[in-house]
Predict the structure.
Amino acid sequence: MDRREFSRMMAIAGAGSALLRKTAWSQTAAPGVKFSVMLWIMGRNSTMEQRLETIAAAGYQGAEMVDEWMKWSTEDRKRIVAKKNALGLTFDVMFPSLTTLVDPEQRTKLKQEIAAAIPIAQEIGCRQFAMKSGARIAGQSPEQGRQSIADGLKVAADVCRDAKIEVLLEPIDVLEDKRQFVNSVVDGFAIVRSVNDPGIKVLYDFYHEQRGTGNLIDTLEKNADLVGLVHIADVPGRRRPGTGEMNYDNIYRKLAAVKYNRYIAMEFYFQGDAVAELKAAKAEALTAMQSA
Amino acid sequence: MTYGEPMNRRDFHKLSMGAAAASLLPSLPAFAANAPATVAGNGGHKFSVMLWTLPKGLSFVQQLQLASDAGFTGVEVGNEYEKWTPEEWKTNLAKQHELGIAVDSAVPGRNALADKSKRPALTEDLKKAIPGAKQLGCKQFIYTAYTRVPGQTPEDQRAAIVDTLKYAADMLEKDDIEIVLEPIDLLEYKLEAVPSVSEAFEITRLVGSPRIKVLYDFFHEQKQTGNLIEKLEKNIDQVGLVHIADVPGRHQPGTGEVNYNNIYRKLAELKYDRYICMEFMSQGDTVTTLRKAREEAIAAMKLG
């Protein structure tokens, strides 16, 4: 049977290369990764300062925002930046705009919003802009949609280039948003690869990918060069690693093996004490990466 | 968890050996140190091994012995038994009875279930597979939906597969054989008609027969779609069999991205009581690896 023969061949090939990689990895000691937390996951009831304190107390270096910054006054910003600096934290990512990348008629708005976000990003020290693709448009073919997203990303990257801010495309699983155009990093990587711009990468959210697509490690290995940021939570329930169906130890090992050295952002709901859970999640990640 | 009778026998045998009294117990066969596993000894769970995953070149007798040595009470076959000689049947059945191993599933063949022109071939496959299955005591056939029919809409495809499965169920009724529909991920076979359990569950619900269920192969599902536990929980009533392997590589649990401990716990919580079949290529010694996979599953389900 072809399928069996095929699987066996794959397994044999896999076993051989796994052995080779193992040898190579053992020379990788502590990876240069940093850890951050997505702020909205911590509940919008606590103040920004309180959340930053929790993140710092857990030994993390970064905090991530969607559109929280949009509501800040000049005074708010000064106060929050002072707090962030006092704690030694970095805002490692923010969403500069919630405008769709799918619709070519929204380009002017997209450009204006991103341009307006740049000085704020510079003020708060943020060097990465994340964006979702936006919803599919009736009448547009999949090819036209992908091309339009690619064009939109290029527009965004061009606006960001002088400020040296990187653009990230974040796929959202179909269970969370069935209208969203880019549902999988498989599609995200293909689009970003087609743009071929060093200023554009993919936000690989393992939670979303596990809910919609699976096959996490294979996809990571094939596209490691385009991963700009990773988001962590288990499935089902979006809680900390170990609570669900994903083996994060092996995902972290693979991240170390492909020499991933950017932020690892926790985006999971706490079941108990936030600081304790964040500390444990970071320690597990480091232990796994060091055993790669 | 209490140990089954074979464990006691084994312990007794060891004690007897220590007392140099083994020769006084002629009723104990020479291999009693490897007394066959029992479902009771496995925490009440039924574990089987898909035989094609074992090292090549083993006879059926050797395959059964290997499965038994690893503590398994079941094996799953293709349709290789259709070619056995009368002499092989005798030897193989004797070994099966000696070890008390069930042949829980067989694969009669592969025909596009959505293609009505393939019905004679399907009928022929089933006719050839049934007599041997009965000899082996096998009560379950595995079918994949296989190739999509060009031009068929998803609705037409689903209706056609439902119709074919009803036909097969009727044909198997008098022999009391069930069918499990196995989805295959598109990375393995890009023309597959049913690449996810989500579609398979829809199909078996439409068939509406207690003898037509879904083979939830976590390896294929993880490669294709993910979201394993939620779908298991929502559709446990339709699950007839589960297959176990990690992704990527199709090796034993722990080698990849799937947290099988939590999947086993969920199976226990949902009171899943059918076969758990290991379908992976062992990295390392086969018996040791299979035994460890089985023990991990039992330990996880105790916690469940």
